[in-house]
Design brief:
This protein is an all-alpha fold. It contains 3 helices and no strands.
Length: 83
């Protein structure tokens, strides 16, 4: 049975999850701190995910972007924010 290439998968993320993933993906594109994809298809999938997140998020355009990401990380990790 052939695989339907047009089949879409819908994922639901919290805004914190989306923001933290977006930031991580963009940092990975900027520096070689993340294990590079083994296959070009993996790279394309990550680029596509990054583009989808970028279309949904407003935080990357906020002046306090770094602070917003830091707060989201803390919330996701279940840590208490330090003042």
């Amino acid at each position: 049975m052939p695989i339907d290439d047009e089949h879409e998968v819908t994922l639901r993320l919290t805004s914190d999850e989306a923001l933290v993933l977006f930031d991580w993906l963009h940092r990975g594109e900027d520096v070689d701190r993340i294990v590079p994809p083994d296959h070009h298809g993996e790279k394309v999938a990550l680029w596509n995910l990054s583009a989808l997140l970028e279309r949904e998020l407003v935080e990357p355009f906020q002046h306090n972007y770094r602070e917003l990401v830091d707060r989201a990380r803390v919330r996701l990790a279940g840590e208490e924010a330090s003042s």
